[in-house]
Amino acid sequence: MLNVLKQQYGMIRSTREILFAFLEEIPLLKLHTKIPDFGSGSIIRTHIHVADCYRYWLGSFACNQKRSDFTFATDEEIDQANVNWVRERFASVDDIVHRFLDEFDDRWGETVKNEVKWQEEPWGTTPLWLLTHTETHEFHHKGQIVSMARHLGYQPPNTDLD
């Protein structure tokens, strides 16, 4: 199963690369333009949110990355971010996903329990749920990102799996 999940994540990375290439063609000011009722407000903020979701759920929650090592992107970082900065953030995501896949190989149905900062009690779920959540979360927000780009007058390429 591990090989299939690594192949699947490779396909997700391929679609992400198509999105990165497209976003590099859009002026940075447009990537930071706030669009009401979409994602996290702007294309760049939404894309960073996706990376931080992977980092939180797979790295911090599941793999017990030191809490002091984990930080969400700050407003200042987001305000200064460009596509290359987001690419670098996703490079760390790639490392986390591969470490997560290796860590939980053959343990996809076991319960992983950890603290969640917005809940009083520890919460538990399976590694398969965490992987499914982060991947579907990325595709949900990718749809929002391409919709935001259309609202800004840009025609995105096909970013779905071929």
From TrEMBL:
InterPro entries: DinB, DinB/YfiT-like
The UniProt record lists the keyword Translocase: no
Pfam family, one: DinB
Protein name: DinB family protein
Residues in coiled coil: none
Keywords for this protein: Metal-binding
Family annotation (PANTHER family): DAMAGE-INDUCIBLE PROTEIN DINB, SLR1116 PROTEIN
Family: Belongs to the DinB family.
KW Metal-binding (keyword) present: yes
Gene3D superfamilies noted in UniProt: dinb family like domain
Organismal lineage: Bacteria, Bacillati, Bacillota, Bacilli, Bacillales
